[in-house]
Amino acid sequence: MKWAFTQPEEGVYDFAGLDRLVAFAEEHDMAVKGHGLISSCCDPEYVTSITDAGEMRAAMTEHFTTVMERYDGRIDRWDVVSEALESQGTTLQSTTFFKVLGPGYIADAFRIARAADPDAKLFINENLVEFDAAKRQAFLDLLTGLVAEGVPVDGVALQMHETFAGPLPGVITEMVDSYRALGLDVEIAELDVHTYDPVSQATIYGDVVAEALAAGVTEISTWGFTDKHLYTWLPGAKPLIFDEEYGPKPAYFAVRDALQQFVTPTAAPGVASLSNTGRKSGLSDGDYDIKMNLTKGAPGSYYRLYENDVLVSSQRLDSLATPRQSATTSFSGKAEGKYRYRAELINSQGVTSTKTTTVLVKHLAPSRPAVSVDNRDGDGTFVATATLKSGINATSYAFKLDGRIVGTGPLTAATPNKQTAKVSLTGIAAGRHALTAVFANTKGSTESRSVTVRVR
């Protein structure tokens, strides 16, 4: 529905194809969304030649009004502005409309669209924000400014063209939360996955749909449905969920399963418990697990874990296979401090939260090892062993005989697991000797009690 296709010549509209599509949708009880009133491409020459701001606004008003009024009551939502930002940047694209009207063209477009159809929902459409944190922030700043100015933006349409990989877990949730906080609806508008591997393609589709549903997205559209009529920038890729013969691909089943997992539960999830191994194993080296267990109540289809109220982990859950559910998140090398964790389980019926579990990380010197020797014959050749049965682990050891280092080496820390170090000594002179072991980590060292070694 971009400008060059609906009004290729000034005053000459071509609605034949659109009329057929809208009629087909109505016949089959399908919703229709209008796309691309203003886009970063597809402006006819008579529009690109306009240099006067008043003339440009008049052209926008005439075009929007003609198109939107024709489908009044038949198309109830529109992408008013698409791809306002640079694809690989954080600034507004220098589009035809930007060149004439400046950054205010976006507000102009939405106000003109609202006047043309006061009842339609008006969306701003953007790409690649799920992969670029700087662009994501720039887009949020743009939206915040538009809302503050009272511009009639109703929602955000995320394109979600994924290439080889999907967004990191939690990014969709972060975006949806930030846009909804501004009072905006959020939809996924152009989902497809460009890759050569059907298995990874299916995984990406499933992950995106599952997280989007859990985040509260209620409208998801794909950028086509069959690879027979695909568009891709990756030569040979087949990005859609049906193949060229209209057969379902693994991606189709992944999307179906994500939808089923979300909608099948008939009640909000039960209240899960949250536990941690940090009381024992997280106090020295910052390595510990947070585990969620649900033993009764309805299952969740999605799990989110928050650390000090910041989302740090999310994953899909199987809400069909069993009423019992669990999820484990491992942390490593956490800095000293107090970490409070809470989790949410989500399905189509609601969200439930766990109680908080707290991990206090204190990086300390190792616990004290104990030393033993196998020197029964007293011949001056023996193996010395240092053992830490349990406690704060070390990353290195040293043996001392009469205060002189006689053996060193590295240790693998996995607090509070057992650690053992050995050294073989030979040719020790006759007499009484004092043997100790020193266990060390970045926070300090601890020396064992002295053991007397007698050599005849």
UniProtKB/TrEMBL annotation:
<keyword id="KW-0378">Hydrolase</keyword>
<dbReference type="InterPro" id="IPR014756">
    <property type="entry name" value="Ig_E-set"/>
</dbReference>
<feature type="domain" description="GH10">
    <location>
        <begin position="1"/>
        <end position="258"/>
    </location>
</feature>
<keyword id="KW-0119">Carbohydrate metabolism</keyword>
<dbReference type="GO" id="GO:0045493">
    <property type="term" value="P:xylan catabolic process"/>
</dbReference>
<dbReference type="InterPro" id="IPR001000">
    <property type="entry name" value="GH10_dom"/>
</dbReference>
<keyword id="KW-0732">Signal</keyword>
<dbReference type="InterPro" id="IPR044846">
    <property type="entry name" value="GH10"/>
</dbReference>
<dbReference type="InterPro" id="IPR013783">
    <property type="entry name" value="Ig-like_fold"/>
</dbReference>
<keyword id="KW-0858">Xylan degradation</keyword>
<dbReference type="GO" id="GO:0031176">
    <property type="term" value="F:endo-1,4-beta-xylanase activity"/>
</dbReference>
<keyword id="KW-0326">Glycosidase</keyword>
<keyword id="KW-0624">Polysaccharide degradation</keyword>
<comment type="similarity">
    <text>Belongs to the glycosyl hydrolase 10 (cellulase F) family.</text>
</comment>
<dbReference type="InterPro" id="IPR017853">
    <property type="entry name" value="GH"/>
</dbReference>
<protein>
    <recommendedName>
        <fullName>Beta-xylanase</fullName>
        <ecNumber>3.2.1.8</ecNumber>
    </recommendedName>
</protein>
<dbReference type="Pfam" id="PF00331">
    <property type="entry name" value="Glyco_hydro_10"/>
</dbReference>
